[in-house]
UniProtKB/TrEMBL annotation:
Residues 272-292 are annotated as: Disordered. This is DNA replication protein DnaC. Keywords: ATP-binding, Nucleotide-binding. The keyword Cell inner membrane does not apply. The keyword ATP-binding applies. Belongs to the IS21/IS1162 putative ATP-binding protein family. SMART domains: AAA. One of its GO terms (biological process) is DNA replication. One of its GO terms (molecular function) is ATP binding. Residues 105-237 form the AAA+ ATPase domain. Transmembrane segments: none annotated.
Length: 292
């Protein structure tokens, strides 16, 4: 490289630093050599450099947004078992992850179902797909966010705290039912719902149907107003299935077989599963003093 070229290269490096084009700064020399060897037109070289800069910016932006979203790891649509929740349309869910109109309109998603039914997994998976599609998402336990908003209220900064959440296209509130039935907590939650109404979207998971939300909002009028705002523009999914964690535990128990300390009885009898109200046939019993 002659002295003039060396000077130009040094100047270009400084200018690319000032222009905040780190990717072009890192790769321009390699592509310039390739362009010289293959006789590229100037436009092709510039386009190639610009493409690399844009791709790297998109990668870094996605990385930042994924970190900011605070999504639980490993929860994707690909590893969500849609066969376990036949009442939920996989096609509809995947259509929602394109974002588009429903996020622009500030519409909501609400997932109902008993504990362990997959609500949190599905909510996180939808959030991840939306982040990958370019949207801003925040995943949080409802109780955690409510506590932060209560602190903001005591510091007289509640309005500003809620406004900061506007940067998120979707706010995922997991486990709404665990908010304490306390006027201070539920009032800040109601203010959040009201502030985002028709402006920004919410995705809420809840163990109880709307008829049980009086246990969350102590004021009946507040309950009615909150539900009204949430369902006005909303898609509802009901995951009314047995607990995934319970199913997994039962399958594991069956695969392990009977404990060696248990004997088979000649007659069967039914026992009640206290957590479900169902009955199951039990044809084994532990020997006295063993496995009890």
């Amino acid at each position: 490289m002659n002295p003039s070229s060396t000077t130009d290269a040094a100047r270009l490096t400084l200018m690319l630093t000032d222009l905040r084009l780190p990717t072009i700064k890192a790769v321009w020399s390699r592509f310039a050599d390739q362009a010289d060897q293959e006789g590229w037109p100037a436009a092709r070289l510039l386009a190639t450099l610009a493409e690399h800069e844009l791709a790297e910016r998109a990668r870094r932006r996605l990385e930042r947004h994924l970190t900011d979203a605070r999504l639980p790891p490993g929860k994707t649509l690909d590893n969500f078992d849609f066969t376990a929740v036949p009442m939920v349309s996989q096609a509809q869910v995947r259509a929602l992850t394109s974002g588009d109109r429903w996020l622009d309109e500030g519409a909501n998603l609400i997932l109902f179902g008993p504990p362990g039914g997959g609500k949190s997994h599905l909510a996180a998976a939808i959030g991840l797909a939306l982040v990958e599609a370019g949207y801003r998402v925040l995943y949080t336990r409802t109780t955690d966010l409510v506590q932060r908003l209560q602190v903001a209220r005591r510091e007289l900064t509640l309005e500003a705290a809620i406004a900061k959440l506007d940067k998120y296209h979707l706010l995922i509130l997991d486990d709404l039912a665990y908010v304490a039935k306390d006027q201070a907590e539920t009032s800040v939650l109601f203010e959040l719902i009201s502030a985002r109404y028709e402006q920004r979207s919410l995705l809420i998971t809840a163990n109880q149907p709307f008829g049980e939300w009086g246990k969350i909002f102590p004021d009946p009028a507040m309950t009615l107003a909150a539900v009204d705002r949430l369902v006005h523009h909303a898609t509802l999914f009901e995951l009314n299935v047995d607990s995934y964690r319970r199913r997994t535990a039962m399958e594991t128990k069956r695969s392990q077989g009977r404990p060696a300390t248990c004997a088979t009885l000649k007659t069967s009898h039914s026992v009640s599963l206290s957590d479900t109200g169902d009955t199951a046939t039990n044809d084994t019993a532990c020997l006295p003093g063993e496995g009890a």
